[in-house]
């Protein structure tokens, strides 16, 4: 072990580089450097400058960063690398080997560093798109001039695994210690380990081979270092089969496998508060003392919004280690710049709000009900579909926005150091995947309503008089007191493939569904909002009361149909969609040649909490609305998926055989529900893994 560690951790030129340095280390990582130099120049800058927008206060809009900071500085990539190397001076990661187990040693962030960055971030891929292109795209739903072929690329998507080795002796000891102290009981299967991670990564290598510049991030648990007086030193768990040098230095053969970066739970925790609240280091110290150590995957997931944008791409696919990609999938199965992230949900399994905390806290249901309740309060009450338990596409800047919008609830989540353990009213765990996904959908709906009511009809005057209300009603297609529309003729679905091909992207549909995993886009936000979460309303029926006749502030009407009269809001969107064949032009204010270009003093989002009084409007209403609709664009999609719960040895064998026979399954999830015979079932599973994915990763020992 000692020799191996020497080999593994041999410092470069005397100084052990941090893994962030290593991304830019010119000696070891020529290949990676090329990638960095060519594509991530702006990211190199971010590590030093973080040029995100101006400070956000809750009731005002948040601004766009200076245009100059937005632009990639393509001219001088070499100089950046030098700059980055000179300026980053982080403590080098130190390995530790305890009783033959390798750990990744690091220092916990200070209380100051634990305060969340409060600045809302733009989505990087949108910055290189001109306002003219975005306007054309959002208003017509067609990718044509002035959007040129070269303006978008296949999405850069990183994989993020949240992993813990429940059999690790130090982790086990820490867990038992806290269980004793709190007298809490957990299900041990939650921590059982069948070496799934290794095979999930082998499967991912094969399935994502065509993804450009993808990086894999392993977010693993950590424990206090036992042999040190320094209480800030932590030991991050490491999959024992992983060559950590390969992971640290981030330069395996990029042809065959993306770099793997290790991050640990404690490094990720960031304190958020109510929008607008000021928090200080004292708050952070207090918070940390209540939440660490954490043995709760909900708590760790609630911190994924704080993945460092300097090293993690804007789009991630979050995996549990029991989830596997069975067939190659193009990036468009998870994300495209045109249509946004692809969410997979089950419209037949609906989650309603529940703030009672009575639901099962050991599983997912308490957190789901609580998250649905928070969404209801902010966006109006309705039931929302459950997210399939499998590979999930997520946007890190948008998750970060969610974590600020619901800051106090995200901060309360890790108070449950075990899943469901902190059963205090209003301090239940949020379900990060559920709330983040539905937040995007709701913010898109909000953007549509804001654009039509506040920007288009309210305009700079901000009021809707009787005459305008009459015209609004007519625009919806109203006739007298009622409106009735049948069978929309939208082109959106027929256009998906053509648009993606025009943009130079591989469509999600498989030509041969045994060679590539097939993905169907079943709903695209270019069609507005679907109250059923999978299709256009077959007909729209509404009454004049929805719009009303008496004069009203546009902002008040917007808030009314957004949250209290959601049916009216849904009908407005559906009616406008029915009246056009493609695009969202009808929602947008008219273009005006005098409108100024968007600049740093313009907002990038609507306020996180909607104030009772209208905030000042951005100067260019149309360009702002277009960027807003683009920011929250999304797809609801499906791929052939197998979900198996391991219950017995025989049943596990049967399900694995049928998985092999299903040649079109793209995604697989294997849940451990074993009550007995876990060892035999594990042997069956491992044999199957080995035969399905025999080829080692280049970082595997
Ligand atoms: C990604 O990597 C490829 C080489 O694999 C490189 O040509 C390209 O410039 C990189 N950047 C982007 C944004 O794709
Ligand atoms: C993926 O696996 C299949 C079957 O094992 C193999 O034929 C194919 O070459 C692999 N593709 C990549 C990119 O490794
Ligand atoms: C998990 O921990 C056990 C006990 O230390 C060890 O034998 C096993 O190799 C570990 N698994 C991984 C994937 O690191």
From TrEMBL:
GO terms for biological process: carbohydrate phosphorylation. Residues 388-442 form the Stealth protein CR3 conserved region domain. The keyword Transmembrane applies. Pfam families: Stealth_CR1, Stealth_CR3. The chain crosses the membrane at residues 29-48. One of its GO terms (molecular function) is UDP-N-acetylglucosamine-lysosomal-enzyme N-acetylglucosaminephosphotransferase activity. InterPro entries: Stealth, Stealth_CR1, Stealth_CR3. Residues 157-176 form the Stealth protein CR1 conserved region domain. This is Stealth protein CR3 conserved region 3 domain-containing protein. The lineage of its organism: Eukaryota, Fungi, Dikarya, Basidiomycota, Agaricomycotina.
């Amino acid at each position: 072990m000692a020799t191996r560690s020497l080999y593994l951790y041999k410092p470069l030129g005397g100084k052990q580089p941090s893994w962030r340095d290593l991304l830019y280390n010119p000696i070891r990582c020529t290949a990676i450097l090329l990638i960095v130099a060519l594509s991530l120049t702006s990211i190199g800058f971010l590590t030093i400058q973080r040029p995100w927008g101006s400070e956000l206060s809750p009731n005002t809009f948040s601004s766009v960063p200076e245009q100059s900071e937005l632009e990639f500085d393509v001219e001088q990539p070499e100089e950046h690398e030098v700059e980055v190397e000179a300026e980053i001076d982080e403590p080098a990661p130190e390995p530790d080997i305890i009783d033959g187990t390798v750990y990744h040693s690091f220092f916990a962030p200070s209380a100051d560093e634990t305060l969340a960055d409060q600045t809302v971030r733009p989505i990087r891929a949108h910055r290189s798109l001109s306002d003219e292109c975005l306007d054309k795209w959002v208003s017509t739903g067609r990718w044509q001039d002035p959007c040129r072929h070269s303006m978008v690329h296949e999405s850069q998507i990183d994989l993020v695994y949240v992993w813990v080795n429940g059999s690790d002796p130090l982790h086990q000891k820490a867990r038992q210690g806290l269980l004793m102290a709190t007298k809490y009981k957990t299900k041990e299967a939650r921590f059982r380990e069948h070496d799934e991670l290794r095979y999930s990564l082998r499967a991912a290598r094969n399935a994502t081979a065509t993804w450009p510049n993808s990086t894999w991030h392993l977010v693993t648990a950590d424990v206090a270092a036992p042999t040190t007086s320094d209480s800030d030193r932590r030991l991050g768990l490491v999959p024992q089969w992983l060559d950590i040098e390969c992971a640290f230095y981030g330069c395996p053969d990029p042809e065959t496998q993306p770099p793997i970066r290790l991050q640990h739970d404690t490094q990720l925790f960031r304190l958020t508060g109510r929008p607008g609240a000021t928090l200080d280091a004292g708050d952070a110290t207090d918070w940390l003392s209540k939440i660490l150590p954490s043995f709760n995957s909900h708590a760790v997931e609630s911190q994924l919004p704080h993945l460092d944008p300097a090293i993690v791409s804007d789009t991630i696919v979050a995996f549990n280690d029991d989830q596997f990609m069975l067939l190659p999938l193009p990036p468009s199965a998870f994300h495209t710049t045109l249509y946004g992230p692809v969410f997979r949900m089950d419209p037949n399994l609906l989650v309603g709000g529940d703030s009672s905390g009575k639901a099962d806290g050991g599983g997912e249901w308490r957190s789901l009900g609580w998250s649905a309740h928070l969404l209801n309060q902010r966006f109006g009450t309705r039931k929302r579909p459950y997210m399939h338990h499998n590979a999930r596409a997520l946007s890190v800047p948008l998750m970060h926005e969610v974590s600020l919008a619901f800051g106090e609830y995200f901060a309360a989540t890790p108070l449950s150091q075990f899943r469901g353990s902190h059963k205090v009213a209003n301090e239940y765990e949020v379900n990060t995947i559920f709330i983040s996904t539905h937040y995007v959908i709701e913010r898109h709906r909000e953007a549509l309503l804001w654009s039509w009511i506040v920007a288009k009809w309210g305009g700079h005057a901000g009021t809707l008089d009787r005459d305008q209300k009459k015209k609004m009603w007519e625009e919806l297609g109203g006739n007298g007191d009622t409106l009735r529309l049948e069978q929309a003729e939208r082109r959106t679905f027929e256009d998906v493939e053509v648009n993606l091909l025009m943009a130079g992207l591989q469509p999600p549909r498989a030509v041969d569904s045994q060679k590539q995993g097939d993905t169907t886009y079943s709903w695209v936000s270019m069609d507005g909002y679907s109250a059923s979460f999978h299709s256009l309303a077959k007909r729209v029926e509404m009454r004049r009361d929805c719009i009303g006749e008496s004069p009203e502030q546009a902002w008040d009407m917007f808030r009314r149909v957004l949250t209290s009269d959601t049916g009216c809001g849904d009908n407005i969107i559906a009616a406008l969609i029915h009246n056009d064949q493609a695009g969202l032009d009808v929602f947008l204010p008219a273009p005006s040649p005098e409108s100024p270009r968007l600049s740093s003093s313009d907002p990038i989002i609507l306020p996180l909490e909607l104030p009772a009084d209208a905030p000042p409007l951005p100067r260019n209403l149309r360009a702002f609305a277009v960027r807003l609709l683009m920011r929250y664009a999304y797809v609801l999609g499906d791929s052939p998926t197998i979900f198996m719960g391991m219950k017995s040895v025989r049943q596990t064998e049967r399900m694995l055989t049928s998985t092999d026979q299903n040649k079109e399954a793209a995604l697989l999830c294997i849940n451990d529900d074993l009550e007995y015979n876990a060892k035999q079932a594990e042997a069956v599973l491992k044999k199957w893994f080995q035969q399905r994915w025999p080829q080692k990763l280049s970082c595997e020992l």
